[in-house]
Specification:
Helix 3 packs antiparallel against helix 4 and helix 3 runs parallel beside helix 5. Strands 1, 2, 3, 4, 5, 6, 7, 8, 9 and 10 form a 10-stranded mixed β-sheet that branches. The protein is built from 5 helices and 10 strands; from the N terminus they run βαββαβββαβββααβ. The chain has 239 residues and is of the alpha+beta class. The longest helix has 14 residues. 23% of the residues lie in helices and 29% in strands.
């Protein structure tokens, strides 16, 4: 029986999502370990791979369950007991046999959290930075809307068939003492969001201009230092 699972995780103690050799803690390795322990041996497929230190509130995976797992709530509770405290299965539901968490996904959304206050209780899940020029960041974010070649916003050595991606939404919102940069697209390259946010903050500091951001969108490499991973969350996957 084919199912999908929505998963949240704290990426701080893991070397990214992708499975690696035994002994290296990754999200995929931990999930597979727990699945094996309850008799689930199918290899799951994820909607995307998050980098080292990046979190998720809505990662989606698809896999086949053995026929004896008919009570999804019971299975969810069992898995969460074993995944605690860094991972949590938020939902399990039945899907069509053709469903594939990666290739069936139409849109993916990420949020980058900027805290206006530095705190040891916040720093693992946000980046401390005080924004000065909201309007400039919003202007630059507006340039992202549409289809672009993001070669200049891609980590060197990335494996991809094409650097072309479409961005549907890019916004800056203030929620209490936080700023949230949310970007939704049909897919993202390795470190793309963190490189974009890093550039935006340089604009806010006055070190770069919006026209420089536009130039990099057109392929001219001007600034390629990513923001820290702690503030980044995979927040939505749409099918």
């Amino acid at each position: 029986m084919k199912v999908a699972m929505k998963i949240a995780y704290n990426g701080g103690d893991f070397y990214g999502f992708q499975s690696q050799k035994e002994g290296i803690p990754t999200i995929a390795n931990k999930l597979q370990e727990v699945f094996y322990s309850v008799g689930i041996f199918d290899k799951f497929i994820a909607s995307g791979r998050t980098d080292k230190g990046v979190h998720a509130s809505a990662q989606i995976i698809s896999l086949d369950l053995p026929p004896f797992f008919k009570d999804f709530k019971k299975l969810q509770t069992l898995l969460n007991t074993k995944l605690y405290p860094a991972l949590k299965i938020k939902q399990i539901w039945k899907v069509d046999e053709e469903f594939n968490a990666r290739f069936s996904a139409k849109k993916r959304g990420y949020c980058y959290l900027l805290s206006q206050n530095s705190s040891p209780f916040l720093n693992s899940f946000s980046h401390f930075y005080v924004i000065k020029n909201e309007s400039l960041i919003k202007e630059a974010l507006g340039l992202l809307i549409g289809t672009h070649n993001f070669s200049a916003f891609m980590k060197v050595g990335s494996e991809t068939k094409s650097p072309i991606r479409t961005i549907y939404r890019a916004k800056l919102r203030k929620i209490r003492n936080f700023y949230v940069i949310s970007i939704c697209g049909n897919g993202f390259l390795r470190s793309q969001i963190r490189l974009i946010v890093g550039f935006l903050l340089e604009i806010d500091k006055g070190n770069l201009k919006v026209c420089d951001f536009k130039a990099q969108l057109l392929g001219k490499e001007i600034f390629k230092i990513p923001c820290p991973p702690e503030g980044l969350f995979l927040s939505k996957v749409s099918f």
